[in-house]
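Good morning C.,

I know you're traveling, so I'll keep this short. The sequence:
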Amino acid sequence: MTILSLEHVHLVREGRHILNDLSMDIWQGHVHAIIGPNGAGKSTIANTIMGLTGYRDITGDIRFEGESITNLSVSERAKRGITLVFQEPARFEGLPVMSFVLAGAREKTRAVFDKSLIMVGLDPDKYRSRAVDRTLSGGERKRIELASVYAMQPRLVIMDEPDSGVDIDSIPYIFEVIQELRQSGTTVMLITHSPEVLRQADHAFLVCAGRLVDKGSMQRMYNYFNGRCVPCSHVGCPDRELEEIPAFTNLEMQAGLEAANVRADKEVRNG
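The tokens, ready to paste straight into the viewer:
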């Protein structure tokens, strides 16, 4: 079942086409990855889905659980169960960690707080009276933000570069939260150019220059991404290789892409 759809989404900022006729279906209860080189438009997709300032003036449509959310505000999208975890966690000077973690939780109890911090490898007793401020390390802030998402149990969570700026000890806890959210029914979208983060997904979309280049099972996309995108010899020019293959007509190429889409759908739905 599709929980989120992007339908022919275009976004132009400062005269530049950032997203170009982008369409994708996000299946409920799966972990999806959006991969691509730096500057491909991955974070733009996350910001556009969330409806952040500067990313709302789009053409096309964004539908969540069958209803258009294109004209909804950030807060209205959040009320429907969509949340975004930024690369750089926010600081809320003076706000207690416990208040931050439980802000979006259905049950604002000490038990939920304790369970959420334990899930990310932090001792609740050591953080209950601390504030979300500059005294916390980057890894601590990232873990606390993930604890807040776990406590929230959203319908859809988008994680932008979840391994960015964290210490190596934090990464296993981040991956564990991703899988725990999946098991609890939350749909997860991972924005990443990291092969290791990609491994946490069931399914992946490859984007470049704001366009969908390919999609498929994690394993197939992992091999493609590692073998042909990292490093990339033509960043921002996703059609370059296609243009260098004269044996295919436009109709044949379209037919091939449609067949790949059908194959990718079957890969996830059957396994």
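Safe travels,
E.
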